[in-house]
Design a protein that fits this description.
Elements lengths: L15 E6 L3 E8 L1 E3 L25 E7 L19 H6 L11 E2 L13 E4 L2 E7 L4 E6 L13 H14 L2 H6 L3 E8 L2 E6 L6 H7 L6 H4 L18 E7 L3 E6 L19 E7 L2 H9 L5 E3 L3 H6 L4 H4 L3 E7 L6 E6 L9 H9 L3 H8 L5 E2 L17 H8 L7 H5 L14 H13 L2 E4 L2 E4 L7 E6 L5 H12 L4 E6 L2 H9 L5 E6 L8 H6 L18 H8 L7 H17 L3 E3 L1 E2 L2 E7 L2 E2 L15 E2 L2
Parallel strand pairs: 4-13, 20-21, 20-22
Antiparallel strand pairs: 1-2, 2-7, 3-6, 5-6, 7-8, 8-10, 9-10, 11-12, 12-13, 14-25, 15-25, 16-22, 16-23, 17-24, 18-19, 26-27
Helix pairs in contact: 9-13, 11-18, 17-18
């Protein structure tokens, strides 16, 4: 392919070109500074900064934060290893400081998600894009000034290398992201074209736009698929300057960062130093914060927010408490059943156990009514199933094979709502009835299988005792109907090893979601990922209708179509009881030292900490 793309006799100029060819007919080519999945971009090509930043924010100072968990690698692209960006809790917190390489465009994906547009991306390493109406290909025009930290110019060669390396040897996340791409070709030193396997919705353009650009010269003699604690070469606003494995990472601001004045970066990344401390226990992290261990504490324990902030630094004003509202996609936070285990293959068994988790009592007694129950895999968004299925949902669900049980296509999914007194009288009766139907009987206060006479015993694994507060009452509720739940808390390395090897019966995890879901849903729910231990299909979901719905994800061309699809998917997943939905909040609880400033307007769809600054 030459530098003129599909039509060697014409070159693409201007914002919109209508090209006529006697062979191909009329083709509309769009050239733009950004991508939007369905609608017009909020910001024009002339925009100077996002609305939720202070473009005059002072540079300097430092901020220290905490992350829950540990890490043993700084290579976020390898299939193995625990990295900063791979921590489930950190993935949701999204502080805005990461070890990931800069992508071609920013705003979608994990790197610096947009704060006020849920389905958009703007040029970062690429200054503009060109693509046809059928989205069969996309061209990225790279910025002349883009450089890696060692001064090497970022070129098409690096983009081609990144695609091949991540497609061939990268983690499954990147292999799935790039699977729709047939080929990548350099059309010049600063021009690169991605060809897709077939025409599709504009969503597939984002798969290319979110590609992290790795330095080919750095990785030439290094293994991209191996864990390492050597900081890889980057091109972003920060470089890793200090590492204590499992304990802390220090990011230092790159003073001559090539992209510091770009509109997508203006007013962001203001601290000279960012330190992230790792704690395996939330209470230990809290005690460290109280004694000056870090500057900003995201409080995830509801009762702490009410009762634990009465120490001197709060009383005298050195530490401030804030609740920050948001509309972020919280993610699929569930107690997942491992349906690979024979014990949990019957949906009636999974439903019965779901009945025994008393959320109303838990929220009242343990959480001080601080949370909302999640009734969806897409909570806090318009993508989740609500009320009864709409006509569009009914039509979609009825078109799938095999046919679905009647409730899925005609009724709203409802979780049990208990009296909140902790007794669960009605729920126990219903749970035992379901278990009896599934072949279990209560004998001498113990539930046993009618065929094997084996007792009902399973293990729930965790890596933090913070969950004791609500899992021990759950364990007690199960005991009241003859089920023994072994609750095992282990260190983080053992926990993640068992999670990756699928050596668990039940596990609590959060699957990060966005407001414009894409191929990550395949990793979470598709049957092809059910027996791949590197995937996030923790429940082992293997359902033909789920697969069909996921295949349609690339075909949607409007927000309404996307909502119909995700809501239908949500219903199928919920009615199959692959996990017990947890809870979410519509605001963040933040305690911080009184040393920071922030913009007047805060982003709705992501955290704002990368836009903060240290007050003089």
């Amino acid at each position: 392919m030459n530098s003129k793309g599909l039509f060697p006799e014409l070159y693409l100029t201007g914002w919109l070109l209508l090209l006529s060819s006697p062979l191909f007919g009329e083709v509309t080519i769009h050239k733009s500074h950004g991508l939007s999945r369905f609608h017009d971009l909020k910001y024009p090509a002339s925009f100077r900064h996002f609305d939720y930043v202070n473009p005059q924010a002072p540079k300097g100072g430092e901020i220290s934060l905490f992350a829950h968990g540990t890490f043993d690698s700084l290579n976020p692209y390898a299939p193995q290893g625990n990295t900063l960006s791979g921590l489930p809790s950190f993935a949701y917190m999204r502080y805005g400081f990461t070890e990931l390489n800069e992508p071609l465009m920013v705003g979608s994906g994990q790197y610096a998600p947009s704060g006020d547009e849920p389905r958009s991306a703007y040029g970062l390493i690429a200054e503009s894009v060109e693509y046809p109406d059928d989205n069969q290909w996309i061209i990225f025009n790279l910025r002349p000034e883009a450089r890696f930290h060692d001064g090497h110019e970022i070129t098409s060669e690096d983009v081609l290398f990144s695609f091949k390396a991540l497609s061939d040897k990268g983690s499954p996340r990147y292999k799935m992201q790039l699977d729709s791409i047939a080929s990548v070709a350099a059309l010049g030193k600063k021009k690169v074209r991605f060809n897709f396997k077939q025409p599709g919705s504009r969503q597939q353009l984002f798969h290319a736009a979110e590609l992290p650009v790795l330095p080919a010269h750095f990785w030439k003699n290094r293994a991209i698929d191996k864990s390492t604690l050597t900081p890889p070469l980057n091109s972003g606003p920060y470089r890793v300057s200090r590492v204590e494995p499992g304990k802390l990472i220090v990011f230092s601001r790159v003073k001559d960062y090539w992209g510091r004045d770009l509109p997508v970066n203006k007013g962001k990344y203001n601290f000279d130093t960012v330190t992230i401390y790792f704690y395996r226990d939330f209470q230990v992290a809290m005690e460290a914060f109280k004694t000056g261990g870090h500057d900003l504490h995201l409080e995830v324990v509801a009762k702490n927010w009410k009762n634990a902030y009465n120490f001197p630094a709060v009383i005298d004003g050195r530490i401030k408490k804030r609740t920050i509202p948001h509309r972020m996609a919280y993610g699929s936070s569930f107690f997942f059943f491992n349906t690979r285990r024979p014990l949990f293959r019957d949906v009636r068994v999974r439903q019965a156990i779901t009945l025994m988790f008393d959320y109303e009592w838990t929220n009242r007694v343990i959480f001080d009514n601080a949370y909302r129950r999640s009734h969806s895999y897409f909570p806090n968004s318009s993508l989740g199933a609500i009320d009864t299925p709409t006509p569009a949902e009914q039509k979609l669900l009825s078109s799938l094979t095999p046919s679905l049980p009647n409730p899925i296509a005609s009724q709203a999914f409802l979780l049990p709502v208990t009296s909140g007194d902790g007794q669960l009288r009605t729920e126990k009766r219903k749970a035992l009835s379901l278990l009896n139907e599934a072949g279990w009987s209560l004998k001498n206060n113990q539930l046993v299988n009618n065929m094997t006479q084996q007792p009902f015993v399973f293990e729930f694994i965790e890596n933090d005792h913070a969950t004791d507060r609500y899992l021990l009452p759950f364990k007690k509720n199960l005991e009241s109907i003859g089920i023994t739940m072994k609750y095992t808390v282990m260190d983080a390395s053992q926990y993640y090893a068992r999670m990756r090897s699928r050596d668990f019966d039940m596990i609590a995890q959060l699957l990060p979601q966005t407001l414009s879901p894409g191929t990550e849903l395949i990793d979470y729910f598709h049957s092809s990922r059910a027996n791949d231990n590197s995937s996030r299909n923790l429940a082992g979901i293997d359902h033909p209708v789920v697969d069909q719905l996921l295949q349609k994800l690339t075909e949607v061309h409007s927000q309404q179509e996307l909502q119909t699809l995700t809501r239908s998917l949500d219903r199928v997943l919920l009615w199959n009881y692959y996990g017990i939905p947890k809870w979410h909040s519509t605001y963040m609880r933040v305690a911080h030292r009184d040393k920071f400033g922030w913009p007047e307007q805060l982003p709705e769809y992501t955290t704002s900490f990368s836009t903060w600054w240290q007050k003089p």
